[in-house]
Amino acid sequence: MSGLSGRDPSLLRRINSTVVLRALRGPATPTALTLTELVHASGLSRPTVEGVVEDLIAAGLVAEAEDDPDQPRGTARRGRPARRFRFRAEAGHLLGLEIGPHRVAAVLSDLTGRILGSLTREIAETAPADVRLEKCRATLGELLRRTGTARDTLRAVGVGTPGIVEADGTVHLGTALPGWTGLALGERLRRSFSCPVLVENDANAAALAEHWKGAARGVDDVVMVLAGLSPGAGSLIGGRLHRGFGGAAGEIGALHLLGREATPERLLSTTDEPLHPLDEAAVARVFAQAKRGDDQARRAMDRFLARLVHDVAALVLALDPELLVVGGWASGLDGVLDPLRAELARYCLRPPRVALSHLGETAVATGALRVALDRAENELFTLDEPEGAL
Question: Which of 7, 212, 294, 337 sits CB 3.0–4.6 Å from 289 for a disulfide?
Answer without folding.
Answer: 294
